[in-house]
Write a structure and sequence with these properties.
alpha/beta, globular
Length: 304
């Protein structure tokens, strides 16, 4: 489900969340060279529109670039510039699910690639007939993405549960794919879930997974593999998976692809005035040993 405020953007300073810290903003990447730390670097990109969105760029120790989602069409110019600064070569692009705030930036870049070279596109997309039945409002987004794939003579590489993809010493493990039997909160609950790890750290990406999809994963044979150092907060930190899911992940760090109005559940009347569940989820995180929160509403975040 796409949620956004068209008329409300504001600036706040970095503050604490319980005993955890909120990260400071980081600068844009400067080159494609290897990192002295010897492990992958991950950037959480900020939204360029009032909408929430999901966009991550990963660089391996040898400079290979991987993108996860990418954001809205309005985020495409910023993403293009970001990738240009890293060499204009994307080895792999993972799409969690086909909502506009996750896939539309890639649609734009496929239609107008310029100097950008994109390698394999990975996803587990619901069938169009299923989308038409259970979430018809998303049909235009999905069809435009498919047309962009055709225009660029591309196909999506279908992901499977348990699949392992190794890129430059980084492991991409697929823990969940589309769930056609779950028709409540339909496309969100068909989010691909992926654990990314190297010798130093692990990150669990959840897309917009909802309670039902989260429960299915928890009770699957991969439910014991959810633990990760970092977790991308499901559905931008509200109306996603339940507290039990986060307890199984037991993260030390949280990645919030969350604008400031959603972070504070602020519909224009102050903190807590909106209908979203962000404040409840923040309270869940206070009960976990989380050390730091990275919030896209504060700007570009860099994790090494």
């Amino acid at each position: 489900m796409k949620i956004y405020r068209r008329d409300f953007l504001h600036h706040v300073s970095c503050i604490g969340l319980g005993s955890a810290l909120i990260s400071s903003c980081q600068s844009t990447p400067k080159n494609k060279g290897p990192h002295p730390s010897g492990n992958f670097t991950l950037w959480q990109l900020p939204s360029q529109t009032p909408s929430q969105m999901n966009s991550y760029v990963l660089q391996t120790t040898h400079g290979t670039i991987i993108v996860i989602d990418g954001g809205t069409a309005g985020d495409a110019p910023y993403l293009r510039g970001f990738l240009a600064a890293l060499g204009n070569q994307v080895e792999a692009w993972f799409i969690s699910h086909p909502h506009s705030d996750h896939v539309d930036a890639l649609t734009v870049l496929l239609n107008h690639p310029g100097d950008l070279a994109i390698g394999t596109i990975y996803s587990s997309l619901p069938e169009e007939t299923w989308i038409e039945q259970y979430e018809p409002a998303c049909l235009t987004t999905c069809r435009e993405f498919q047309l962009a794939l055709q225009k660029s003579s591309r196909e999506v590489s279908e992901l499977t549960i348990g699949q392992l993809i190794q890129i430059d010493g980084v492991c991409f493990e697929i823990l969940a794919v589309k769930n056609p039997e779950i028709t409540s909160n339909a496309i969100n609950n068909s989010s691909m879930v992926m654990k990314v790890s190297d010798r130093e750290k692990s990150v669990l990406f959840t897309g917009d997974l909802g309670v039902e999809g989260g429960e299915k994963l928890l009770h699957s044979s991969y439910g014991t593999q959810l633990h990760a150092d970092y977790v991308q907060m499901a559905h931008h930190g509200q109306n996603g998976v339940n507290e039990r899911f986060y307890q199984a992940v037991a993260p030390r760090f949280c990645l919030w692809p969350t604008p400031l109005w959603l972070w504070d559940c602020d519909n224009g009347g102050g903190k807590g005035s909106g209908p979203w569940d962000t404040l409840n989820v923040r309270a869940w995180m206070d009960r976990l040993p989380v050390q730091k929160h990275y919030i896209s509403g504060f700007g570009l975040c860099k994790i090494e």
